[in-house]
Amino acid sequence: MKFEKHGAVGVITFDRPDTLNSLTFEVYQQLRDLFFKLETDASVKSVVITGEGRGFCSGGDVNSIIGELFSRDMPGLVEFTRMTCDLIKNMRALRKPIVAALNGTAAGAGSVIALASDLRVASEKAKIAFLFVKVGLAGADMGAAYLLPKIVGLSRATELLYFGDAVDAVTAEKYGLFNKVVAPEKVLEEAMAWAKRLAEGPTFALGMTKELLNAELNSDLYGALDNEARAQAVCMQTKDFREAYEAFTQKRPARFTGR
Q1: Does 99 reside within a domain?
Q2: CB 102 within 8 A of CB 129
Q3: How many Å apart are CA 122 and CA 237, to the nearest integer?
Q4: How many domains, the chain?
Q5: 157-198 tens-digit pLDDT
Q6: 187 and 208, same domain (yes or no)
Q7: 113 and 32 part of one domain
Q8: Which SS3 state, helix, strand or coil, does residue 182 take?
C-alpha cells in the first residue's frame, strides 16, 4: 500500500496488482492506522483510494490470510475480524471526504472498503461483489449488512449479500452504489477532481455533514432535526460561513480555510 499527498488530497493506492490488490494482515493494519491518523493530519483535506493494475481490491489474500486463519482459535479469529471492522470504523469516523476510484473489480473486503467510502467513481469495466457467502461466510462482514441497505435498500442489499454475485458498473450505478461511471482512463482523474473540489471547500462543514450522516442513519426525525439545528449553529460561528457571505456580496469565489 502506498500513500502520497497531492496538494491537500491524500491518495492511497493498493499496490499488489499481481494479486488484484489482495489484502494481507499488514495492509489491513496499515489502512486501519492510516485512516485514524488522517483525522489529525491538517495537511490532508480529502482522500482518494484506488488500486494499481486491473483490480481495485480483491479482498483478503487466500494464502497469507485465509490459510493462516485456520490455525487460529476463537479469540484469534475475533482479533482479526475486530481489526477489519476497525478499518471501516476509522473510515466512517474520518471527518474528511473519501472518494473511491474503482479502477477495476472490488470484491470481498475490497467491496466494503468501497462501500465505506463517501463517494465512488468507477471504471466502465469495474465490478463489485460482496462474495462472502461464496466462501462460506456471512454476507454481513465489515459493516456490509449495515451500510449496504442504507445505499441500495433492504431488498436489493439482501439480494447482493445472499447471492454474492458480481455486479457490473452500469447496474451498480443504477442501484445507486456507484456515483459515477467513466471510461477506464478517466477514473483517477475524475476521482481526483472531486477530491480536490472537496478539499477546497468548507472542510469543517463537510466534516460536520459526514458526522451527521453517520449519526442520523438510525435517528428518528425529531432527533435528526435537533442534531442538525445544533450543528448549523456551530457552523454559523466559523470563519468559512462569514467568508461565504462576504464572497457572495463581493461577487467573488469563496476562499475557505476550514475554520
Answers
A1: yes
A2: no
A3: 37
A4: 2
A5: 999 999 999 999 999 999 999 999 999 999 999 999 999 999
A6: no
A7: yes
A8: strand
